[in-house]
Design brief:
It is built from 13 helices and seven strands. With 371 residues, the chain is of the alpha/beta class.
Amino acid sequence: MSPQITPIADTAQDLELAERILTPDGTRIANPQLDAFVDDIDAASLRALHRDMVILRRIDAEGVALQRQGQLGLWAPCQGQEATQIGTARALAPQDYVFPSYRETGVIYARGAKPGDYVRMWRGEEGAGHDPASLRVAPLQIIIGAQTLHAVGYALGIRHDGADEVAVTYFGDGATSQGDVNEAMIFASSYQAPVVFVCQNNHWAISEPVSVQSQYPIAGRAPGFGIPSLRVDGNDVLACMAAMRWALAHARSGKGPAYIEAVTYRMGPHTTADDPTRYRKDDELDAWRRRDPITRLEAHLRALGELSEDHMAETQAAADVVAREMRAECLGMVTRPPLSVFDGVYAEPHTGLDRQRGEYAAYLASFEGEA
């Protein structure tokens, strides 16, 4: 599989170059490359994917609200990218290990995150919002593209051990201009590491449009490294699941890395510190609203006669429960004492750590009595 290498003129053309199974109006079309990878997905499975995406959007909205209310230091919205995150994450095997960027709320949700896991890091309470070992998801990475190197390193370990695992790393279109991403691809290809690269092309690297940094589809770069790639409509949850199943099968079979470019769109700001109205036109946003991944799947289910009012009501109720629990967890968090930063650094205490703890305690004590 390989993408069409045609220059990108605008976002409409950009999307039309991507493989899809569901059109924006919810019509299912034949796709010889992808159909076989989702032939087991029935109406119940589609409703489960719909439920996941609705819950994710509600989690995301609650995260934005908590930040605006001063409860979180920052939040990185993923509205509009639900199909990419849920579709790919639900294709993973339990033993696979994920190396995400800071925007993969849907991935940690799909891997079993608890309500407090979504906010703990953004509130500044812990270095990781979740337990990496239990979710098999590395801490959210803030440094752009660094997680791709971590994923390849882990994948080299998988190959050395002969384990039945795949490392998966997520990053945005802006990260593809980082040296780390390209270096990771070189190592992955050279050593045939079992790793899947997932580029969520959401069209904006903060305020920089993707057309400035990539005149051609991003997936077209991977074959230059010797990595097969697939470019899919990132707002089509079925296409995203099919692409990930293809990529995982490729990597798991010993054929080396695979690359997915999911063409989607960031509906909100880059983070809550950003104002997208300064650089983005309303008509572009409106055009992508008409390609909404959730309403697309709803239209498909409705056409099948498989979208009931009971399902819609239950799904919304479930989403509200998660949001309430997330808010309660956030508001109930108690910041640990400053000296606890030394806890868990080493398996066995030693004198050097004791000395550092003492020095830090003296530093903190120097502020006592100040107004």
